[in-house]
Amino acid sequence: MKKVALTAALADYDHVRDLALGRVQADGIELTCLTLPIEEIFFRFIVYREWEVSEISFAKYVALTAQGDESYWAIPVFPSRVFRHSSIFVRNDGPIASVQDLKGRRVGLPEWAQTAAVYSRGFLQHQYGLDLASIEWVQAGVNQAGRIEKVEIDLPPGVKLTRRPDKSLNEMLLTGEIDAALAARPPDAFLAGDARIRRLFQNYREVEEEYYRSTGIFPIMHTVAVRRDVLHSHPWIPRNLFKAFEEARRRSVARALEGTASLFPIPWANDYAEQGMKLLGKDYFPYGIEENRTTLAAFLRYAYEQGVCRRLLDIEELFPPQLHSTYRV
Q1: Which of 66, 131, 146, 264 could staple 269 via S-S, CB 3.0–4.6 A?
Q2: Which domains occur in the chain, in start order?
Q3: Which residues of 160-183 are buried (b: 16+ CB within 10 A; e: fewer)?
């Protein structure tokens, strides 16, 4: 049988690389992988559907699904997962010393519907009891002015969001026009070592570990989507792609645990992997629906409460029916 030719756009993750380089093959598929910057991948796929398979922002995907967009379906592959307590930045000489100090303050974010911001607002509300309407929200690009929302949003009652296309969050944080910023990509001043900017949670590793212990949530940032026109013609593709992504991930985890050679340019890389396993379990970076049900349910609730989704989605709506049953390679 002739293989189906597909093009996929993905960031350069180690846990995807064996698939991208052809060391792992998806049965029945001739896969060509493009390695591009994340922002470019998202824009070109969401707006133009330029390729058949693509990494995609999880928040954008659920927002479009709730709006009735049936252009693509995700497979339960989650190449990017990051705890986000480390993503809140404040001024050292500013008024914010704790989460409760955010009440009544101006807090910037790059997009209301950015996945990282959804998680951050979610734990501010649910773990710390902060009323999102008590904050004056400001939307702007992190380090460059002009960023805009990519999907329609419906802000909750009482929530105020001011758009500032003329300035960046980095600039406004330094000048005091905002008191804090929720940003997956750190402000340039912070990366440059500017002492005026610090993280709100300076012990974020400890805070994030306790967050996982208490909630079971390991935040999912991105998923992988397949255009539905492809799935209509070849309904077996989601399962075969999932198996290939899973095998590439399994090989990467094995490399991370390898202690005899420095396969990653990170001192004690295998020790960090072992620490993650102790907290998160043996399968500490899981794909699949059931393995991620707690995180998926929490995110869908946050997205609905925050007006990113027009309605509360069921988890099964996100993935094609042929992947709903528990399945492992």
Answers
A1: 264
A2: 4-81+218-317 (3.40.190.10), 85-215 (3.40.190.10)
A3: eeeebeebbbbbbbbeeebbbbbb
